[in-house]
Structures are given as C-alpha cells and as structure tokens.
Amino acid sequence: MQITLTGIIRLVFERLHIPANWVAPTVMLVASVIVLFFILFVVLYLIYGLRKIMGWIQARIGPNRVGPYGLAQTIADALKLLAKEDIMPAMADKWPFIIAPIIVFVPAYMVYLVIPFGKGGSWVAQDLSIGVLYISAILSIPIIGIITAGWASNNKWSLLGSFRAAAQLVSYEVPLALAMIPPVMLAGSMSLQGIVHAQQGVWFGIFPKWFLATQILGFAIYMMAALAESNLIPFDIMEAESELVAGFNTEYSGMKFALFFLAEFAGMFTVSAIAATLFLGGWLPIHPALSFIPPVFWFLGKTLVLIFVLMWIRSTLPRVRVDQLMSFGWKVLIPLALLNIVWTGAVVLFFPR
Asked: For residue 316, is pLDDT > 60?
C-alpha cells in the first residue's frame, strides 16, 4: 500500500469526522508548507555549501565556528538578518517597494509545483501536462519584481541594477527556453514525469538512455543560460558590488532583503533540478542494477552534482562586462540553440523512439 499525503489527511479527517470536501484544500495547504520548509532548508545549506566550496577552492577554511563544522553558521546569519530593522528610504514608493521582494520570491516557490522528486504522483505536487511551458512562464516573472525594486528604491544604483537585470534576464530567457525544447521533442511530452519516463533503459547494457547523449550542446546552453538567469558569477552584473553597490536590492534590509537572498539560492537549486530532469534522467538510476537505491536519492544526487558545478564556476571565474554578456547571449547561445533544435528534429525524424 502506497502512503500519500492525500491518503494520510483523508484518514485523519475520517477519524475526526471532518467533511471530506475539506481534504483537497487541506492537502494543498500542507503541501505548500512542506515545499516552503524544504526551500528554507535547501537554501540554508546551499549557502553553507557555497562558503565551504569557495573556501576549499580559494585555500581558506570557510565557516567552522557556530555549531559542529560550522553547520549552524547560516542559521545564525538568518536569525541575525531577520532581527535587523526593516528600513524604508524616505523617498521610496512605499507599496511597490514592499511588494517587489514578494514578486521575486513567489515564482521561485511556485516552480517546485511541477518538479518530480521521485517516481509516481506522490513525489510531485502536480504533474502538469504543460510542465515545461509552465516553468518557462514562471521563470520570466521575477524580472518584474527586480525592475519594481530598482524603480521604487529611488536610488540611482538600484535603478541601474534593475535596468541591467531587465536586459540580462530578457536576453537569456530566450536561449534557456530554446534549450528546453529538444527534450520535449525527444520525449513527445511537456510533462516532466513524461520526460523522465522517456529516458528509461540502457544502451548496450551499460549506458543510460539519458537525453544528454544527444543533447550535450543543449545541456551546455541550458547551464550557461541558467547561470545568467540565477544571477551567478560570471553573469552577476545586475548585482556587481564593485560597480553598483549591490544593484537593485541596495536599499533593502531585514526580511525584504532575506526574500531576495532566498529567491536567488532557491533559483540555483531550481535550475539544477530542471537540468537533472530534462537531461540526466531525473530520478532514474544510472543502471537498472542500482534501482534498489530510492529514486529521490538519485534525483537529489544529480541535482547536487550540478549545484557543485555552478558553485565551482562561481568560485573561479571573473565577472564579464555588460557588452560581453549581451553579445554572448544574442550572438552565440541563441544561434547554437536554434541549430540544436534543427539537430534534434533530424534525430527524431530518422531515429524515432
């Protein structure tokens, strides 16, 4: 018997004689709270992991004081940030200034709706038939909050940061979306669970049938565009501290700044989880002989490997100039992404599943 959140809540409601029509809203509420706490946990230890990896690469120690091995350092930092006074500039536009962090954070939260963490419906909040389209739409919303934050702050550095963000995110959404099209073509489905199921099996009894085999270029394009979408070095020009004093969030403090910070690190996990699903088989094992390992561990393992790669890049490469960033997106990534779609069309035509 498979234990699901819906089944547990239905059983509890039956024992407490609560009407059955309350089950669905309660499931939605509980699932939302579970996802929120998962995001908070992931962000806390992504920050810790980034500090440790950067310390290792740069021959430093990293956090090692608060808690064993410094594991409680990010918890202490989070408590300190939430305890800070929430200051609003006197000349800021009040309501846009307040709403902007929410607009940026909510999409980073909503995208988890369709990410399959494991096999079956119990490991995905909602397996939408248009999952890839939903992700593309949701990932384009934060730019509205970033522009709003820069404008409402009434600060020239914040405004410049938001203008840079608009140019960067709008530009790199195009190759990001184009890179997600080939897996859809190969699977014949926009459902993320459907895309994972299409990658089942092995070639020659050894190699997994992941889409990475024919989509190395698409995977590289996706990861480079994801770096820009996540505002990570070398593509973090919207928050360039040496140029813009932190960019669009310069005037923010306390809980509002925490929401921006939360959205950025949640986005790092999100783009890695999507890449693992589209190109690396999601929750599928490397080989059927290893299927005794729970699917959720395979999914999280692949995602963490990609996160490590992003952190590695962030720790080693310098920041690019604005003109270099824009030229690379429009003149390199987009043409290559279009060529990759043509290549995928040929694969689907001559080697149908």
From this structure: yes
The residues, ordered by sequence, that sit 6+ positions from 115 with a Cβ below 8 Å of its Cβ are 124, 192, 270, 273, 274, 277
Q: Could you give the CA distance from residue 230 to residue 240 in angstroms, rounded to a whole number?
A: 14
Coil, helix or strand at residue 235 = coil
> What type of residue is 333?
L
Amino acid at 301: G
Instruction: Pick the more confident residue, 231 or 338.
Output: 338
First to last CA, the chain: 33
Longest CA pairwise span in the chain (Å): 67
Phi-psi region of 321 (alpha: psi -120 to 50; beta: other; left: phi over 0): beta
Section 105-119 average pLDDT: 83
pLDDT at 122 over 70: no
3-state secondary structure (DSSP) of residue 127: coil
pTM of the model: 0.86
pLDDT in the model for residue 1: 41
Task: Give residue 223's identity as a one-letter amino acid code.
Answer: M
Find where tokens 């800070």 sit: 84
| Number of other residues whose CB lies within 10 A of the CB of residue 11 | 11
